[in-house]
Amino acid sequence: PEAGKQYQLLIEKPEGGIEFFDLPKAAENSVGLNVAHSADFITLTPLGDIQFSQLTINHQGKVVYKKRIESKSAIRIARKDLPEDILEVSLADAGGAQKLQAALFNTNIETDVLQEAFATRTEASLAQQLPSGNYSVSIRKVSESQPLQNHSIYAKTGLQLPDNLNHTELQYLSFFQRIEQKAIPEQVSFMPEYRYELLEGSLKANGDTTTIDDKNVVLSLTGEDRLNMSVARTDKDGKFILEYQTVPRGQLTPAHLTVPDFENSYSLEINSNFMEEHDLEFSPITIDSAQLEDIRQRSIISQIENVYFTPVIDSVEIENNVPSTIPVFNAHYEFDDYTRFRTLKEHFVEYIQVAGVRERRGEKRFILYSYDAGFSFEAEPIVLLDGVPVPGNEILEFSPYRIKSLDAFNRRYFLGSLVADGILSFTTIEGNLGGFTFDSNHLAFELLTPQSEDKVARTSLQEDERIPDSRIQLLWLPSLKVDQDGMQAIRFNTSDIEGDFEMVIEGFTESGLPVSMVKRFEVKQLNNE
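RE: above sequence
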């Protein structure tokens, strides 16, 4: 190639069609690396201007092999000396500048095709040797378009490997997959540890001197039969993400957002769950004839399943299995068990012994007495009304005739980033704040709870052969724990669907080695002739 010019690579696909790949501009002084795989060794042969270069092999960010290159002699590395995984090989010049980076395969996707076939609508079992570890198991029908889709996904958007390829073939494919390295940010606003529902919003200060960063925002769900609260902290822009868990009823429930910093004034906004503005670009969707046939078959299966789908009418209220935010209080007072006085302060003076009310210069506040010997409270207690934080001085002006009960917790309490020296939790008779109003720091709204899972009543497909079984996913085990090395029997039931199926097992051994294997088999109807 001529230096400075750009060339294209033309690939004629076995199934038909031609693809073009743009190659980088040809350089005068460049480097390369020939990779040759054998059963026990990987042979790396440097090319080009490589004198005094540094060859490095990394695994998950750690250097597992390093060698200074003095000549173009081949470098032979035993597979057993490298981690069994997809590695990264790179070449750097004498000055440390990286000249080459590519994937290096020291693992493989095992594919095994069974010669015997299983009959439709029967109990089946597949035996597989597995080392001790944790795995996921999926058995489903192989679609006609799947092989082409796998190659396309791997070549263009992500490192998803097609199966049934040896190390050399995987290595060739990797040359068309660019590996990009990005610096790890100091912090991110969204992490995978969020397991439940999310609510995103922002905080705005109503005064010029009030800050909006590092403030606690409390979400209270008042439409449930127990305390359900969650807390998030704002970032420098006043934004927050609240994670909450609620009963899946599929309907609206009363909710409240509160900023318990009542010495300052804030406004709250809830952001949309959908991105309204973005600069993302999407390629047009292209569906070939094989994919259209898959979609048609899936549509027919869905229609058949809908015909035989019978929902169960459940008259019992959905069980609330969400644990209470504050499971235990050390004191409980039912106001109807005592004489009701005209002011809330008089109730604390007369019979509520775990807390008191102090007044100074016209300002009233609650105090709680610590139950831990030698420990004195320093911060203010948090005061709740039906699970919603409220200003203590304002609740003292609230009508006690609307209060049903009081629960007290006389110890320091941590709710996420919120720290309180004790808790006073008032419950109104109606359970809806009893007409209490906020001047600021509060937003009332209705939150849509997740849809409950439908219960299905249908006769066993194995017992009633008149009902069709159109499942293409025959088995899904998200967590298979193997305690001891050995042969594992994977049991499942076939459906009425004929064709090629595959069992995909992926996971990690106890020592951390990745495992990925595919076993294919056929399901067909028995011929009784």
